[in-house]
């Protein structure tokens, strides 16, 4: 078959598939859902970041999900790429011939796939071009589901800018013909008038810089807070006469519709949606029309973003507080029900004194109670309303900021507008809190890991929690948001996992008891001598008990096996009642000062923690 015949045959190929409800074909693309394939490479639009995925992963997904498929197009184009070394005048000329296909598929379906790269060395300076390699193939189609078999070629592909430009045309010019034409232009510069901040700038933004600044993939989690803030601001503008009651109702209904689209997964992200604020405002204007343009009256993206972030964090703090309280509550309940279990207390991993298992558990619970108190103390510093501060100098329309604070649930108002839009101290404070809390969780995890080893065998962790804690990594120019989001996610997940670990672990009380040895009662032996009225300092009584331990070890017996005569040789104060020392229950019950490991003091600790959770 000639190339021309093959081109014609592939171009006319159509595939019958079931179209999901609400989907429609528009130049082979449904806005927000369609991505461009070049040969074997798939390029995502700029709102998803320029990524490349394997076509072999795409088509089976199309078959499985029964999504509509557009037409194929055979195209040839040339491109020149400058040398990676900016001082070298060499240019690489690329002739690309292959198939182009537009398909509806989400980026999450393709996560983890990586491109193949071809390395080409510059003959002048030895710098390296690294270009994605297109694997052009013969396609075979069934009547329902696409099937593919590959024939390798080694044609380097470089057409990212032209691909993005085509996608922009497809999304914003619905009157384009239903056929796909070769793209020869490069991506246009992004006009500043599309941006919330671009009104005074007459130049254009470099596409690479525009994409680098995008944060929607991270800050879209603030969508609810952004809409909530806009609803409150709409009401405040109505009170100032900017909106009529009818317009207010239209705006609130429109904002609720945007929120519902996000919740249902129907919100269509467009390439010009730089962040969550521009995305919501763009969609709102599409729904309500020109009246949506008045929403920014007196409001800057500065006070809008600052408000959204505080509002979002306040909601997350409530969620984290709930997780922390859940963990403490489980620890307290286990401590209450298992306080009869005794175990060795360790210093430097050496047996020290007998303690209650509950005492160990509660030691970690008190660390978390301190964390809970610190988190609650942080809330008033987060709950400060920036909205109404404008860009930096204040709001010129006299909006009622007290009203806004009440509507949004803020405890106070930023008294200085410049500080209100620039302050990020609360983010640092929360991250410091998260770091300390995770340190406490790590310390508890170390105990649990050690005590669950075969060498100890004191506890057994549930299989559900043995793999460990999750971690994530993200990269974003929004340097305050990314680490904050990451901290919130990790601490919230870790606390919930820790709660599950504590709730489901099994305690081997018999093995704990068996690990108790008489030499752990050496301190009790010294205490016995003090109670007998030994006038020497406590360190001397401790020295006597140490000699008793050494004597027992030399004879290969326990402290309780030494005779009264042997004890009297160490000190005449030893009497027949010395045998009462060798009782682990009595030992822990003697530690009855506040904070000790006796039953009474453990009960007190439980009561203190329960009250703190109220």
UniProtKB/TrEMBL annotation:
Catalytic reactions on record: 2-(N(omega)-L-arginino)succinate = fumarate + L-arginine
Keyword Lyase on entry: yes
Cleavable signal peptide: none
Entry EC number(s): 4.3.2.1
Every Argininosuccinate lyase C-terminal domain range: 520-589
Enzyme class label: lyase
Family annotation (SUPFAM superfamilies): L-aspartase-like (SSF48557)
Transmembrane segments: none
Pathway(s) where this gene product acts: Amino-acid biosynthesis; L-arginine biosynthesis; L-arginine from L-ornithine and carbamoyl phosphate: step 3/3
Gene Ontology CC: cytosol
Record has Lyase as a keyword: yes
A single GO BP: L-arginine biosynthetic process via ornithine
Keywords: Lyase
MF annotations from Gene Ontology: argininosuccinate lyase activity
Start and end residues of each Fumarate lyase N-terminal domain: 199-466
HAMAP family (UniProt xref): Arg_succ_lyase (MF_00006)
Family: Belongs to the lyase 1 family. Argininosuccinate lyase subfamily.
Protein known as: argininosuccinate lyase
Source species: Thanatephorus cucumeris (strain AG1-IA) (Rice sheath blight fungus)
